[in-house]
Amino acid sequence: MAQRFRYTCKKCQKGFQIEIDTGSYSIHSVICPFCEQKTLFDNRTGALDKKASSYNNERQTSDLNQNQRNQPIRKSTDFSWSSRSSGKVGSKSSSSRAFGSSLLNRGRSGDSVLSKVSSIFSLSQSNRSKYFLLAGALILGIGIIYGSVLIFQFAVFDPEPYIGGLNSRSPNRIYDRNGELISELFTIKTGTLKFDQIPKPMIDTLLFAEDQNFFSHGAIDFIATARAAFKNITHGGYVQGASTITQQLSRILLDNREKTLSRKIKEAALGFSLESRFSKEQILTGYFNNVYLGHGAYGFDTAANFYFKKKLNQLNFTERLALASLPSAPERFSPLRNPELLIRKMDHIYERMRESKFDSPSPETYEQEKIASLHGLNRSPTETVFGTRTDYGPYVTEYIRAKLSSLLGDDTETIAGLRIETSIDVNLQQAAAQQSIEWLTELRKSHPYRLEAKGDETILKSQIRREYLLMALGGTFFGLPVPRTGNKRLETASIGIEPATGEVLFMQGGSEFYPENQLNRTIQMRRQTGSAIKPIIYSAGAESGKVNPATPLEDSPLYFSGIKTADGKDFWLPDNIDQDYEGEIPARIAMAKSRNIPAIRAAMMIGLDR
Question: How far apart are CA 592 and CA 488, in angstroms?
């Protein structure tokens, strides 16, 4: 059935009407009546029949202007491949037909790859020469780049430091005395998958989205590169990339995002080194473990756990497709930040899969999986993998991190893959943390967050007195003085030590561990020791033989001159908490009653240096 269309010649930009038999599912050709430009129209999928219906409806509802009525009409010539190739057109894959149809729909009516090729050969001699020069320059440029890569690879570039990055950067793991995980230390947590642990559907989905010819090309897919370059040039901008999985892995290992020729050559050279030294399976495994997928997640297994709380082999089709859509721009297509953009990209890949007969669910199932997997991600767009890591003893973790740095160097703090076994009991550690919070919550009811402070002059005098006290007494025996007023809330600390072995069973350095409260008060605080010093004094006396449980100690007033005190006096007159004295008492009674004066006399007998 002959149908008429409006068409504008791509060469002379003049409009005319064409008549095509849309019932013939073949390639049709039309010659422009003004410039004799030949154009091909692809109707193998019947796309022109739909165009004709739309055009005829427009004609029934609106009048054509005078210019349109006077436009010349050109009939098409059936350029059917089936008659010229003994039916071979019918044997072409549905993906090829769909590919031609998609190009037709993307441009103006009849704008297909064949029409572009035909238009090149229909140009004048000078214009045709320009296209051939462009193609020649493109091929020459690729050859120069390829040669530069080879020279750079073998003469200058050393890939060894970068290839070492293929090793999974495993976190340091801290365990308690029973083998239970306490926490992990990492700045970058990459995957730890082996090739046989990667589900085949996940591999197929990724390669369809990123590099369909991965197993058949080398480090660079030159055909795809030339095709992408031609398409970008003819469209006047970037519309298609051609980076292979190997090139992307090289970019990851280089860890350099500068858009320079030097970086591109290094990337290509490293890609050739990878292809020459590793199998395709090893390269793909390295990619699966190291590619960045947003929110601090490196590797597909890490991303699967972060986004969907699942292992990689538990993902459904839509979840696999979501992860495969992230490598090109993980932050832009983040399911937490821009789910609409991600779904748009997923839908585009899904349509390509359907056209290519890729193993994929029905549209109904796909829509249901999208709702279940993506629309339920009601989480903060700023959430990262660092906020989801396990840590049952943050004060213990920070202590061990600092120890690793001092003993083994900064490089071992986080991703050295160390297994660190401790004497901590994780159950006691968690109980200590819970008890600290409960006790402080109750105690803070009677101790406000801020205490009423005195005037500025009084505070200044108090600070000066404390400085003098520190200079006079030092921090060795008496510790640092505690201000009588403050503006910080009450805090606590607790530590559990096994008496027989000295092993630390738990260490809780404060109420809660967060950026403003990381001080470990069990080991980092300098405070007056108070009565806690007395058992140490008496044990030192027992070791030296100068004090034993029966040693008589005088509980009577003491006076020290030449010592500046906090209240401005130049002497110190210590006393007991009840301001009473019991006279001469045995050391065991003095320690049991925590008497201050006998403890001071014992320290003087033993010697402060001891």
Answer: 34
* CB 515 within 8 Å of CB 566: no
Chain centroid to Cα 601, Å, comes to 62
| Beta partners for residue 175, in sequence order | 181, 421
Q: Which two tokens stand for residue 592?
A: 């049991």
Residues forming beta bridges with residue 183, ordered by sequence position: 174, 391
* Cα–Cα dist 12/122, whole Å: 13
CATH of domain 530-606: 3.40.710.10
Strands 172-175 and 419-421: parallel
pLDDT at residue number 428: 96
Average model confidence (pLDDT) across the chain:
77
Q: Which two tokens stand for residue 557?
A: 């007033």
Q: Are strands 73-75 and 77-78 parallel, antiparallel or unpaired?
A: unpaired
For residue 446, the one-letter residue type is S
Longest dimension (CA), the chain: 130
Instruction: Find the helix or strand (DSSP H, E) in which 138 lies.
Output: helix 125-155
Per-residue pLDDT at 474: 42
**Which of 567, 425, 397 has its CA nearest to residue 503?**
425
Place of tokens 């738990």: 506
In which residue ranges of the chain is pLDDT below 50?
A: 55-124, 239, 469-486
What's the pTM value of the predicted model, to 2 decimals?
Answer: 0.53
128 CB-near residues (< 8 Å, 6+ apart): 120, 121
Residue 236: the pLDDT is 56
What is the predicted pLDDT for the residue at 109? Answer: 37
Asked whether 297 and 191 are in contact (CB, 8 A), the reply is: no
Residue spans of the domains in the chain: they are 2-93, 530-606
* Burial degree of 481 (CB within 10 A; 0-12, 13-18, 19+): middle
- What Rg do the C-alpha atoms of the chain give, in angstroms? 40
